[in-house]
Amino acid sequence: MALHRLAGKPAPRSLLVNIPRLVTSYYSRKPDVTDPAQKVTFGTSGHRGSSFKNSFNEDHVLAVSQAICQFRKSKNITGPLFMGMDTHALSEPALASALEVFAANGMTVMIQEGLGYTPTPVISHAILTYNRSQTSGLADGVVITPSHNPPDNGGLKYNPPHGGPADTETTSFIEDRANDILGEGNKDVRRTPFEKAISSDTTHEYDYIGPYTEDLANILDMEIIAKAGLKIGVDPLGGAALGFWDPIARWFGLDIDVVNRAIDPTFGFMTVDKDGKIRMDCSSPYAMAGLIGLKDNFDIAFGNEYDLDQEVEVEDFDEITSALEAYEAKKALI
Hints:
The protein contains eleven helices and ten strands. The chain is of the alpha/beta class. Helix 2 (58-74) packs across helix 3 and helix 2 (58-74) crosses helix 5. The two termini are 13 Å apart.
């Protein structure tokens, strides 16, 4: 593939997605259940798509959410469901749709305080922390995210009680049942209005930031990191990690400079990837050109994609650029 003329350059306005139109499409457009491209299709533990292509619309989220309720019942999963979302434009509408279904089905749901953003690893941490002391009534989780997919995408991942990505048996159950529900016009979906769902006795705000931040000391020697006096640069890349870096810096006494505090669902702060598209690909030196451009300001820098299940760490900027270019060249040969 030839390198696009905009690769590594700031995204022009002509590439930015129309967010009002995207969200309108989420609610107004209906999938054609006879078209395989518009059905529920689980990849890495979740369904992803775009409301412009009728592959991620409200009907999909309602059907998947009801299928998750039925899966939990079949496996006798009765503990709380830890729920988070990233900063993609479709994530908040999808969270609202899913919560309407979960509340109507009487599920206990834990959401971030103030409808804040929650990275995927934080949901996994909450599940594992809760289940550590449980022999029954285990918790599971849902993350509303299409991961590093482009800004017009939405997604919904299911994490079972072990905290990690769902296995194929689980995803096949949810995918098949969701498509059956879609095919029947979502008549089996139980749903309550969002205002009732968010204020329901089964919906609870939860502090995801504090417990996760404190627990970092159990896997990393934060005292040594603090004593090293490193000047650390962080670009959350508009993602769900934004609210975590300041508490981490305060709690452990780290010199962290968050260089980009923008939450922009158009990804307008990104540089363009090699094919001329905007995406959050931490393996691409073109998408990460902004982070690589910080080479003279910090001892080490981090960039996180939207739901934090990928990151790029930069220490020697010349070496990391060469490594990423070599990685891209190797992929082109496969």
